[in-house]
């Protein structure tokens, strides 16, 4: 029963992820998405778009990685991709959060899930590269669909978007080529500043 209680405590802890807001708007621009919505959306993208990975991936491992990679934001908060000041303390905040949140789990799951988070962050394996590609493409798609609301609100520039996506191609050349077309279109129509 102790194992089950630890797992249920973790599940209840993750409920807090539903309350964490992000800067990206939903496709219709009605409101900003939450962390849990972001993870769900990316998990669907993972199995739907797996054929576009540069190499064959373990899709279940990739989906686990995607669903678990932002749980640390329960404590660390969502750090906006283009917030230079907040990004200075991001790693320290996230490490502390990972210790506490993954620490709720039984030891074997704690090791496995923490390792998946670390693998995502390191971006060295095919699964981590593809998961990171989706983590970059998903908000880009939503920004494009919503008319670039978030980009315009924050005055995001071309070099910021390109810098954030410098490694996106490592997970999927096909998805990166598609994303570049969207970026060019949003620069042309003024959603992304030159």
TL;DR of this structure?
This protein has 194 residues and is mainly α. The protein has ten helices and two strands, in the order αββααααααααα.
Tell me the series of helices and strands, N- to C-terminal. Answer: HEEHHHHHHHHH
Structural class per helix/strand content? mainly alpha
Total count of helical runs of at least 4 residues: 10
How much strand content do the residues show? under 5%
Key features of this structure:
single chain; 194 residues; mainly alpha; 10 helices; 2 strands; 65% helix
Can you describe this structure?
The protein has 194 residues and is mainly alpha-helical. Strands 1-2 form a two-stranded antiparallel sheet. It starts with a helix and ends in a 6-residue tail after the last helix. The model has no long low-confidence stretch (mean pLDDT 96).
Question: Which helices and strands appear, and what pairs or packs with what?
Answer:
Blueprint: H1 2-14, E1 21-25, E2 32-34, H2 35-49, H3 59-68, H4 73-76, H5 84-102, H6 107-122, H7 126-145, H8 149-154, H9 158-164, H10 173-188
Antiparallel strand pairs: 1-2
């Amino acid at each position: 029963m102790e194992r089950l209680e630890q797992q249920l405590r973790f599940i209840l802890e993750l409920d807090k992820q539903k309350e964490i807001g992000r800067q990206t708007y939903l496709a219709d621009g009605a409101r900003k998405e939450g962390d849990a919505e972001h993870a769900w959306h990316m998990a669907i993208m993972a199995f739907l778009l797996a054929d576009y990975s540069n190499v064959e991936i373990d899709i279940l491992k990739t989906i686990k990685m995607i669903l678990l990679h932002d749980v640390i934001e329960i404590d660390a908060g969502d750090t906006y991709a283009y917030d230079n000041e907040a990004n200075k303390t991001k790693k320290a905040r996230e490490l502390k959060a990972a210790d506490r949140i993954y620490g709720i789990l039984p030891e074997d799951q704690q090791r496995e899930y923490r390792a998946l988070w670390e693998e995502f962050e390191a971006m060295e394996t095919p699964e981590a590269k593809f998961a990171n590609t989706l983590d970059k493409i998903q908000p880009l798609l939503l920004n494009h669909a919503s008319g670039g609301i978030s980009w315009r609100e924050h005055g995001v520039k071309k070099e910021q978007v390109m810098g954030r996506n410098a490694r996106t191609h490592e997970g999927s050349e096909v998805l990166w080529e598609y994303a570049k077309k969207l970026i060019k279109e949003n620069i042309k129509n003024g959603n992304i500043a030159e």
